[in-house]
C-alpha cells in the first residue's frame, strides 16, 4: 500500500472510518464502569518480570514505571509484512508513563485541550506528533530537566535527561511486557474487548484511562483507547532485521510510527507488533486525529523521576 500523508493512517486504518465517526458519531454520554478483569497474565518468556514494577510519581504528577534493561524479539513472522522479520532487540532501562497522557495533564502544562472526547481523565486526543513532543519538552522544563527536542528542528537528543516519545522498539518492549503472544494478554482476539477499548466495544469514543486491566508491567491501554505516537519515522519494513541495541528507526521519513490501535479500529491493529504510520502534521480538516494520543518515556540512567 502506498503511503499517503493525506490519509488518516498511512496504512491499515480506513480513513473513512474515523471521518464517518466525526460526521455522525459523538461522545457516548457517560462511560462504562470500571471493568473487573482478571489479573494480568504472567509473562510467558524467560527473564520477564513476574510482578509489575512499582509506579513512581513525577514532579508534575504523572505516574511512571521503571523498566529494566532487557532484550526481546521485535516483530512477528506470522503477521503483516511490515512486522517482519522478527529480530532481537536489546534496550537500555527507561521509565514510561503508566497511562496515555491525560487531558488533565496536557491542559495543565500546555494551557489548552485539543481533545474531541473531553474528560479530565480521558487521554488527550487530536494531538499531532508536534503537539506531543512539545508537551514532552514542557514537562521537562516544568521539572527542571533538559528538553529532548530541539524547538526549531524537533530533532530528538537522546542524551538529554528530559521526556520524549518512546522509540518504536521501546513501545513494543513495554507493550509486550515479557510476553511473546500477539497481545500482552494472549493470542485470542476474542479476549481483546476485555482488555482494550476497540471499535467493537468503545461506542465510538475514548474512555478514561485505567478502566481496563493493565499489562503485566502495569501499563494501561497499551492496546486500544488511543493509538500512540512513537518517536521513530515509519518504514514499511525493518531495515536490516539484524539484532540491534536501542534502535531508533530510519534517519528520515514522511510518517511517524503510531502503535496499539484505538477506539476506531479492530483487535488486529492493537496487537503488540502491529505497526501504523501517519504524517506528523495536520493536513486535512476532516481527519482531526481523534484516534491519536501518546505517552512519554525518560532515560532511566538520568535522575529518578
Ligand atoms: Ca493506547
Q: How would you describe this structure to a colleague?
A:
The chain is an alpha+beta fold. The chain has one domain (55-299): paralog of FGE (formylglycine-generating enzyme), CATH 3.90.1580. Helices cover 15% and strands 15% of the residues. The chain has helices at 15-24, 103-110, 129-142, 168-176, 192-195; strands at 56-57, 63-67, 70-74, 87-91, 94-97, 163-164, 227-233, 244-245, 256-259, 275-278, 292-293, 297-299. Strands 1-2-5-12-6 form a five-stranded antiparallel β-sheet. Strands 10-9-7-11 form a four-stranded mixed β-sheet. The protein is globular. Mean pLDDT is 84; it is low at 1-8 and 12-49. Bound molecules: calcium ion. Residues 100, 221-222, 224-226, 228, 260 line the site of calcium ion.
Side by side, the strands of the main sheet go: 1-2-5-12-6
Mean pLDDT: 84
* Order of SSEs: HEEEEEHHEHHEEEEEE
CATH architecture: Alpha-Beta Complex
Proportion in β-strands: 5-15%
Instruction: Flag low-confidence runs.
Output: 1-8, 12-49
Secondary structure class reads alpha+beta
With helices defined by DSSP (H or I, 4 residues minimum), what is the helix count?
5
Bound molecules: calcium ion
Annotated CATH homologous superfamily: paralog of FGE (formylglycine-generating enzyme)
Per the CATH scheme, the topology name is paralog of FGE (formylglycine-generating enzyme)
CATH top level class name: Alpha Beta
Helix content: 10-25%
The biggest beta sheet is recorded as: 5 strands, antiparallel
The radius of gyration computed from the alpha-carbon positions, rounded to a whole number of angstroms, is 17 Å
Shape estimate: globular
Distance between the termini: 41 Å
Strand element count: 12
Number of domains: 1
